[in-house]
Design goal:
Structural class: mainly alpha
Radius of gyration: 19 Å
Helix content: 55-70%
CATH topology of the largest domain: Arc Repressor Mutant, subunit A
CATH architecture of the largest domain: Orthogonal Bundle
Strand content: 5-15%
CATH class of the largest domain: Mainly Alpha
CATH superfamily of the largest domain: Winged helix-like DNA-binding domain superfamily/Winged helix DNA-binding domain
Largest sheet: 3 strands, antiparallel
Number of helices: 5
Order of helices and strands: HHHEHHEE
Shape: elongated
Strand order of the largest sheet: 1-3-2
């Protein structure tokens, strides 16, 4: 899912000034790096130790939570790209999950049951 974003550039010569005068700025930066590092560890852990079907279900449930909807508008190709696998693998797994009654497939959409 894409969202509009606003970016603020801070000149490098002002960074030290901000750190000295606004200690909460440094705390913000450290919290941000910590969060990103934890996300990186989660990805490494998922790729190294989880099967693709588990990763696919995790991704779908995260999207459901983000969208606050059981209906997820996405293609098999987009899911495959996000998971770093082939589209045919995602299609096969989605069909298997549909057969198990976990989700319903539609044209460019997935409905979590």
């Amino acid at each position: 899912m894409e969202e509009d974003a606003e970016i603020l550039f801070l000149p490098i010569d002002k960074v030290m000034l901000f750190i000295r005068e606004y200690p909460e700025w440094l705390n913000y930066i450290f919290r941000l790096y910590h969060k990103r590092f934890e996300e990186l560890l989660d990805v490494v852990n998922a790729v190294a130790f989880k099967k693709v079907d588990e990763r696919l279900l995790d991704l779908l449930y995260k999207k459901k939570e983000l969208l606050n909807s059981k209906i997820i508008q996405i293609t098999h190709e987009q899911l495959a790209n996000e998971l770093g696998t082939a589209r045919v693998v995602v299609s096969r797994l989605l069909k298997q999950l549909e057969d198990e009654g976990i989700l319903q497939l539609g044209r460019n959409k997935i409905i979590l049951v």
